[in-house]
Amino acid sequence: MGDRDLRVVAGDEQYDIAPGESFTFGRGAGCTVRIAPDDAAISRLAGVVERDGSVWFLTNPSSRRPLAMVDRFGLRSVVAPGSRAVVEGRVRVIVEGAHSHELVLNAPEPASPPSAAVIGQATSAGEGVLVNDQDRLALVALLAGYLQEGDKYDPNPKSYAAAAARLGWPRTTLVKRIEYLRLRLDKAGVPNLQGWNALNALAEYALTTGLITKDDLRLIHK
Question: Which fold has domain 6-106?
Fold first, then answer.
């Protein structure tokens, strides 16, 4: 596999795709990977992966069915019918039908990846905001679904009650810790941490800055 090749993992199989080649998936017999041929909810040609110039793209050729992409942070985005999205680094593609099907695309990393926050006993997250171990533990319990893969993946914050139960904390303890952290980050200039979508914005911030990562799942799986 060359430096600019792309590797696709589908179940127990893997495929190395070189520039100039394409990889297709769907329920049609002509696809590189055929997914659930009897499931009419999946397009015959659900997706195409190929390189255009120096960039790898996932194209959704369907006229009706969206695709979902999950980036390296665990954040989900939709590739609408007829559109395409850049593939950089490790990306998961979710094809929804009667059941969910997942493929993993491993493309070259971006030339200048964003820097992550340094994880330690106390992490600077937003100017002047310190996030301690108990704050991080609360975040992992609340946002664990983003960090999971396969059937356990869920790009939504858990309820306060469910997150608290996972830690064995009273619900009020977790609520106070998360809400106080959210308010401190908001005052430090982190956007969108007020209003109905505040927890989703908190998730995006915590994941994209590296404040919590997949490795932190061990904190709640002891």
Answer: Tumour Suppressor Smad4 (2.60.200)
